[in-house]
Every structure is written in C-alpha cells, then in structure tokens.
C-alpha cells in the first residue's frame, strides 16, 4: 500500500449513527469517518453530544440506529477531561501511567521492562524524573502530559481526547498542541497517530487544526477551518449569530452583539 493510500485508510466510520441513554436520541444520524493519520477537532456548544460521540467511538455507548465500524485490531486510547480527575487521590505519576499497562490485570505490579517503558514515555513527553511525584504537585501542562503518557503506553492507532485544553492557560495550551502535533506527525519524525479531540476554543485551537467537524446532535459541517468556520454553519451549530474575520490567512470567530453587551456593562459600571 502506498503512503498516500495508507494514510487514507479508514480507521473508523460512523454511518447514520444515533445514540441515546434510554430515552430520546442524544445524537442522531451521524456520518463521520476518521482516516489513518488524521487530526480532527470536533466543536460545538455544551450539551451538543460531543462527549457522547467520543463514547460511541470508544465503544462505551452503543448505537440504537445506524452503525459504527472500526478497522479490525484498531487500538484506541482515551484522555479524559482534567476536570474529571480527583487530584487528591494518593497516586504517583508512574502509577497513573502504569494503570494502562496491557498486562496490569495479570500482573498488578509492573515488571522491570514495563517500568522502563513508562520511564521512556515520560522522558519523551518532558516528564523525566517525575515518576515518583504525586500528580497534584504538577502544573496543568504536566498533568495533561501524564494522561497523554498513560494513553501512549497502549501504543494506539487513534487517540481520543475530551477537551484537552479546557481550563489551561495559553502557554499550556501551546505545549499540549505541540505534543499532539508530534504524535500525529508521520514516521519517522512522529508516530502517525490519528487524533480526535473536542474543544470549545474556536480561535485558540480549532482554527489551527487541519480538519474540523461542527457538531450539535449531528454533523453540521465537516472540512477545513476555512470551509467550516463560516457564519452560516456556526449559527446552525451554536444557535447564535457569529462573525468571521480573516487575520494572517486564518479565520477569527467573533460573537455578534459584543459591542452592545460591552456598552451595557460600561453603563452599569459608570452608574
């Protein structure tokens, strides 16, 4: 198979997929395909079903209609939102990463070769020497990289991340994106891992990705940022009018009505 054909191979395909939690569908008639080596961002408002879509991709939520097809032997890894982690739980960096060892059920204690692998992955992500550090003692960027290391131990073909830059500062966001870009880059410089992530950050993250999916219970638009970040698709996705400007060849999304709100707040402050 040629390199171009290999990269175009479909790892996962959702066809007319609908999912629910026992009542009405949460997501409906979803059609999306993830190819080998792709980097895909899924954007949409809170409550739009983005996390449910990720759960369906991971297999923890089953479709009630349609289907989801995965390449045979596909290795998936998941990085949760940092907000869902209990940082006071008494666990070290090495223990967090080791939790995803394939042999963990047969051998609760990591063997020397597994410890070496954990240390190698941490070193690669700039966390060398922190194996025995408690996770609560790390910075936000370091905490996110710990969970990336935990996922990479599984040697995935596809990495799924739920809001990987939520609640972090600009520097940490850049750190996380550079790490993901390295993982996504084709061998020999990178791992060629397909990456799918959700985000609310249209300008700081989504606009920089090669492919975006606007999502609100179903796929509203799918394409490059220039194709997807358009007022028509954004209003259908977020239910509010938005303006799109161009700066340095990139789309910048602005909420309409911002001037009116700013004037009201200024009048309120003045009074």
TrEMBL record:
One Pfam family of this chain: ABC_tran
SUPFAM superfamilies the record matches: P-loop containing nucleoside triphosphate hydrolases
Entry-linked InterPro entries: AAA+_ATPase, ABC_transporter-like_ATP-bd, ABC_transporter-like_CS, Metal_Ion_Import_ABC, P-loop_NTPase
Domain ABC transporter: 12-241
GO molecular-function terms, A-Z: ATP binding; ATP hydrolysis activity
Keywords tagged on the record: ATP-binding, Nucleotide-binding, Transport
UniProt protein name: Unannotated protein
Native source species: freshwater metagenome
